[in-house]
Amino acid sequence: MFGNKKSESMSNGNNGVAPNSNNAIVAGTKIEGTITASSDIRIDGELVGDLDCKGRLVVGPEGRIKGSVTCQNAVIEGLFEGKLQVIELLNVRETARIEGEIITDKLMVQSGAIYNVTCSMGKISKGTNKPKEAVVTL
């Protein structure tokens, strides 16, 4: 009747990761390499390398990423250099500085942000890194 919460979360097919869990790289931490996250991640430290995130990425005001990132949604408040692929919405805050290549479906850039990129927009085709071409009928 009353299940063991721990054993239920461990047997739900996601390797023990709670559905609303978050990952964090705190200020003062530097990681070099590849990170794979099955849930949201917040970076207030530094990442030099690649990130594959199935959830939302938040780069805090002091956060820094140099590398290649793929994620569902992103909020950038700090520094990003490299290639960023966002499946849904990229939100660039006023404290952000982004340089590189951006591929996203939707984009919001706040006044004051530094945004020096090449940008491709539109729904991203499954199995590719390129957006589908938009077809407009008038």
Walk me through this protein's architecture.
- The protein is mainly beta and 138 residues long.
- It has one helix and ten strands.
- Strands 1, 2, 3, 4, 5, 6, 7, 8, 9 and 10 form a ten-stranded parallel sheet that branches.
- It starts with a helix and ends in a 17-residue tail after the last strand.
What characteristics describe this protein?
138 residues; ten-stranded parallel sheet
Summarize the structure.
The protein is mostly beta strands and 138 residues long.
Estimate the helix proportion, in percent.
under 10%
Largest sheet: 10 strands, parallel
Element-by-element helix/strand order: HEEEEEEEEEE
Structural class: mainly beta
> Total strand count, please?
10
The Cα radius of gyration reads: 17 Å
Distance between the termini: 59 Å
Give the low-pLDDT segments. 4-14, 133-138
What's the pLDDT, averaged over the residues?
A: 84
Strand portion: over 45%
> Quick one: overall form?
globular
Given the structure, what is the number of helices? 1
SSE map:
Elements: H1 5-10, E1 22-25, E2 30-37, E3 40-43, E4 46-53, E5 56-59, E6 64-71, E7 73-76, E8 79-92, E9 97-109, E10 114-121
Parallel strand pairs: 1-3, 2-4, 3-5, 4-6, 5-7, 6-8, 7-8, 8-9, 9-10
